[in-house]
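U., I forgot to send this yesterday:
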Amino acid sequence: MKTIGQNIAKYRKDKKITQEALAEICGVSPQAVSKWENDVSCPDVALLKTIARAFGVSVDELLDDGEGPVTKLTENTDTSKKILRIRCIDGGDKLNVNLPFALVELFMSNENLASNISFGKNGDTLKKVDFKQIAEMVSLGVIGKLVEIEGEDGETVEIWVE
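Result:
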């Protein structure tokens, strides 16, 4: 699990910003930045937006602990390089599917394929997902976790795009 301190250190180094320069941007001492990066302390909540902007990332990305994807809008609208990830959980049974988005678009154009997909005790949990709407969001540049559905019998479907 990543910490905010690890994220600050990574983004700072990626942007080639010194601790001193980040301290000046935030109006704190370089020692304070060092303490953040070493997880001795955390930046004040009021500074999170300033820090994120200095690195060109969102506050969500700055706080991301690595446990799951962050949903965000990117400038990349090219769907050919994106991956659709589907996780289905039904009690102890788990199904993970990773598909190139180009294959998903082909799948959506074939009604016979789409109608034969099922998951859950009633077989309808995955059918509740509007893949055409997901494709539209992805073509606009949305990535991250897009859908989470809990079925009547407790089965769960999560869908995200990377």
